[in-house]
Amino acid sequence: MSDFILDNPFLEFLDARLVAWSSGYAEFRMPIQARNLNRQGVLQGGAVATLLDAACGYAGVYAEQGEPAIHGFTLSLTVNYLDTGLGKSVTAKGFIERQGRSIFFSRGEAWVDDKLLIASAQGTFKYAGTHGKK
């Protein structure tokens, strides 16, 4: 599976990679490194929230190759932390729940090493400009 081009400096700074992307779904993976840890030595909650925000948002802005890019922004994001992040990598998966003309709703899951669910999220996002959805 090849990575997609992010064109997102903050996610690139975190070494996050968009590893799966299709209509209604996005998956990001990030290595757990010392710079992502908090004072207790576990994955920083803000890093998890960032990945969940990206996965939930990208799930609603997929465009086929050759089509104009679709952009959006977060209106709200609620994250529930379920466990600590200790492992080699964290994967955030975003799923569209409902899509309208200008707003979409997504849910997300964050997994450590594809085994341990550490957080869930729900978000509301707004399309930026015209996106061609009917």
Written account of the structure:
Pfam families: 4HBT (PF03061). This is Medium/long-chain acyl-CoA thioesterase YigI. Its EC number is 3.1.2.20. This protein has 134 residues and is mostly beta strands. It has a single domain, classed as Thiol Ester Dehydrase, Chain A (Roll), CATH 3.10.129.10. Helices cover 15% and strands 43% of the residues. A six-stranded antiparallel β-sheet has the order 1-2-4-5-6-3, covered by helices on one side. A hairpin with a 2-residue loop joins strand 1 and strand 2.
Question: Summarize this, please?
Answer:
The chain has helices at residues 9-13, 45-59; strands spanning 17-22, 25-31, 71-81, 89-99, 103-112, 116-128.
The assigned CATH architecture is Roll
What is the CATH class name? Alpha Beta
Major sheet summary line: 6 strands, antiparallel
CATH topology: Thiol Ester Dehydrase, Chain A
Discrete helix count: 2
Q: How many domains is the backbone divided into?
A: 1
How much is the average pLDDT?
A: 92
Q: How would you describe the shape?
A: globular
Gyration radius from CA atoms, angstroms:
14 Å
Beta strand count: 6
Question: Approximately how much helix is present in the residues?
Answer: 10-25%
Order of helices and strands: HEEHEEEE
Q: Superfamily at the CATH H level?
A: Hotdog Thioesterase
Cα distance spanning the termini: 31 Å
Biggest sheet, strands in spatial order?
1-2-4-5-6-3
Unreliable residue runs:
none
Strand content: 35-45%
